[in-house]
Amino acid sequence: MTQDACIRVERAGKRLGGKEVLRDITLHVPRSEIFGLLGPSGAGKTTLVKMIAGIDEADYGEVYVKNQKMPRLDVMSNIGYMAQSDALYGELTGYENLDFFASLYGLKGGTKKRRIMEAAKLVNLSADLKKQVLHYSGGMKRRLSLAVALLHQPEILILDEPTVGIDPVLRQSIWRELERLSGQGITVLVTTHVMDEAEKCHKLALIREGSLIAVGSPESLKKETNAQTIEEAFLLYGGARA
Amino acid sequence: MRVQALIVRIWRQFIHDKRTLALMIVAPVVILYMMSLVFNGEEYKPDIGAVNVPAPLVHKLEQYGATVVEYSPEDAEKALEDARIDAIISFDGVIPHVKLEGSDPSVNKSVLLLLQKLLQDMNPAADALKSSISYLHGSEQMAAFDNFGPVLIGYFAFFFVFLISGVAFLRERTGGTLERLLATPLRRWEIVIGYVLGFGLFTMIQAGIIAWFAIDILDMIMEGSFGYVLLVTLLLALTALTLGTFLSAYANNEFQMIQFIPLVIVPQIFFSGLFNMDTMAEWLRWLGAVMPLTYGADALRDVMIRGKGWADIAPDIYALAGFSAFFAAANVLALRKHRKI
User: Fold this and answer.
1) Do residue B184 and residue A101 have CB atoms under 8 angstroms apart?
2) Taking CA atoms, what residue in A is nearest to B16?
């Protein structure tokens, strides 16, 4: 039992509309790790991530973030959350969107302005801040959502499918940034169904139909199954071996 | 402060969305103007077909504003059949006989009123019995529009604010931004208060423009204080705002939000005093008591037609404030569906 884990999920489960979407999940994420949740769509990744972010609650079991039982508002102000759908205000400009969320997290005046510019630069949107978001492309909206999650320099980043629709060059620079943040002690929880992205995580959890089927570093997962790729390993853990 | 951030955001959205802003302000003004044109028209002048009517009486009828055409009995029947005239007056000896076209009650009424005046003239003795008439409120010149104008001011403020705020909150829900908001430390009541205050400014502007337009431009009857009209309109709009955002919790898309209009908005106009409640079945009247517009319309009429002050409208004001507080609290509870804390 790692008491000092930054995120702890203890035997948690959830039913939605009579269907069991998460079954008996136990997961420990240490501080400053990039932890990937890998699984096909519908596996329950988003539900799990929402429970950790404090938006959703488990039917049974517990979720702790920084040793506090979730949901708790004071812990939530230390989490940067990027939802799977771009939750942005289309009528507003990019700057106004960032300004709004920055104010919600209590940023003010010069600090707020500086953080907005830094976050926008990070996702390469500095030149487009004056445009209304409804004129953004899908990838630009994705990047703006990411900037919103980074604004208040949270200790924990929860990113639900962050790089969908982002071009490969920018995707690389985003991963470099996540690597840098984790080096600064920030814990990053990221969901994906892209296998080559999964390779970049320090540790991976494989989820299928609401159950955790394996946890470990990409190398150890491959080694254990004698697989060449993560995809192969996933298939083997999923029962394709039998 | 987080509520302040929400308010600023709503203002910015309004400034970017000029069409919605226009709907809130221009639409009620245009509709009020059209209603005033329809209902402030001149008094109806009936067309009379005269058969064997003595010449002095024809003259009298024309003096009272009727258009009189003399017919033979057969032609008169034909004209009535074709609805070219509203009534036939025929004299069989000294007894007048009247036949009305009869398909429009308001036309019937104006023909009968004309005859009443005529008969009074024919019987000089009635003159002595003519009572003297005075008005406690209003005047002889008061038009129908003056009577239900105050109700309309309240109704349009209510309707447009309900629609716009309901859809705005719904879009927050369907667009995923509500969930995103709930991932921040923002509290549920802060969201509701932010919406009330953010929209509050625009409803205040709307209330002011509608009331000013009705009173100064359309020359609607106005006996009391403009400040009270503004206060009542604003409270009505606030009730609409809290009700709209609350009900949006029970709609999955814009179309379902529109479905609330015949359920929530239209019935209110029947119970708001536009039609006389005294003739309504007793058990139906309590329905009026749960509808915010009943109180708003009552207060607006008290102020605008009867020139009453705070003491008379205070119960209505408290009722409207109560409705707003109730719906806002209900919305805070409804948001529990998305996040428990």
Assistant:
1) yes
2) A91
